[in-house]
Amino acid sequence: MLVFLFAMYYVVISFYLRNKIREIKTKEEKMIDRMKWMCKLTLDSDAACISELRMDRATFRILCDMVTEIGALKPTKNTSVEEVVAMFIYTLAHHKKCRTIGLLFLCSTETVSRQFHQILIAVLRLHHILLKKPVPITQDCQDERWKKFQGFLGALDGTLIKVTPPNEDKPRYRTRKGCISTNVLGVCCPDMQFAYVLPGWEGSAHDGRVLRDAVSRQHGLKVPQGKSVISFLFC
């Protein structure tokens, strides 16, 4: 009886291992699956691209060109610029960890982490393009939403973005609602383009404290002085 049970156990284990071995994909098969996934994300339709990457296909293409030509981002042997940009945006859009991105894009967590930092540096090199110089609203403004705010540069507000800091720092990042977040100050022009961004403050910091830090920095938020005083619209 024991011999029969051992034989059955051996047969079941052998069958399971053979199936598992068959499921292991080759490098070429993984590359094909990655190409299919990228096509689904960035080529099939604008609806899918906006849903997953928060931008349409044309905008994604422009961003890839910008980080390549201006940000000096280079493709690697196994990863294209488009894949790196897609991994970066998907991480930010859905707040995913390296393990999850690695499973989606069929690459190692080390590759995801390394490429994330590379493209982050490339995007920071675009700050002089992505951050617009604000222009005061004039008297002949035709926008019904803004024409009553003559002389204003735009609108500013703070937003909370979820983060995962070290355990010893979590109390400082805990908001009054119990979330672990960072407090980010943003200033937008009337056309919804960013003019200034200050990240890094803990979620527990008051908005007024973040604003004071922004205006007191050497290269921080500057408002013209004198007769042409420009006020900001507080949200």
Short description:
With 235 residues, the protein is of the alpha+beta class.
Please outline the helices and strands.
Layout: H1 2-23, H2 27-42, H3 46-53, H4 57-69, H5 81-94, H6 98-105, H7 109-124, H8 127-130, E1 155-162, H9 170-173, E2 181-188, E3 194-202, H10 207-216, E4 233-234
Parallel strand pairs: 1-4
Antiparallel strand pairs: 1-2, 2-3
Helix pairs in contact: 4-5, 5-7, 6-7
Describe this structure in words.
The chain has 235 residues and is of the alpha+beta class. It has ten helices and four strands, in the order ααααααααβαββαβ. The chain has helices at residues 2-23, 27-42, 46-53, 57-69, 81-94, 98-105, 109-124, 127-130, 170-173, 207-216; strands at residues 155-162, 181-188, 194-202, 233-234. A four-stranded mixed β-sheet has the order 3-2-1-4, covered by helices on one side. Strand 2 (181-188) and strand 3 (194-202) form a beta hairpin. Helix 4 packs across helix 5, helix 5 packs across helix 7 (109-124) and helix 6 crosses helix 7. It is elongated, with a radius of gyration of 25 Å. The model is unreliable at 226-235 (pLDDT under 50).
